[in-house]
């Protein structure tokens, strides 16, 4: 009986190590490119605008909006991850410009993904970077579940 328990412990330990490696190295996280972003959100009924100039310099900048949704989804694709990391940092440092009251902030980081969520009484703001892409959403607390689902569907 002892041999079976120790074998189970070893297997469980190995599974935990493999799981941690996936999280830390970013395995399983695939960024979407501009075409995939446009196709995905167009299929959901969003209007995609590529003519707007984004607040930060990027390879591409697209904005998804929907008439009955009170937020827009800003998508950036950069030439490399370093540029995406810089814009992520700039958004994070300027979060006070979007929040009207104290907020609870949460950051998740990995090798290829960084996600920052700021939640206040009224606002729900997400900055999510995967590899050389970034999504910024300045939403409301009432729309939290909708925003989370949209981002989960595209692994952001």
Structural commentary:
With 156 residues, the chain is of the alpha+beta class. It has four helices and seven strands; from the N terminus they run ααβββαββββα. A seven-stranded antiparallel sheet has the order 1-2-3-7-6-5-4. A hairpin with a 3-residue loop joins strand 5 and strand 6.
Main β-sheet: number of strands, strand sense, barrel status?
7 strands, antiparallel
How much of the sequence lies in strands comes to 25-35%
Pick out the low-confidence regions.
21-27
Q: Topology as H/E string?
A: HHEEEHEEEEH
Q: What average pLDDT do the residues reach?
A: 88
Radius of gyration: 18 Å
What best-fitting shape do the alpha-carbon axes yield?
Answer: globular
Classify the secondary structure makeup into a structural class.
alpha+beta
Per DSSP, the total helix count is: 4
* Helical percentage: 25-40%
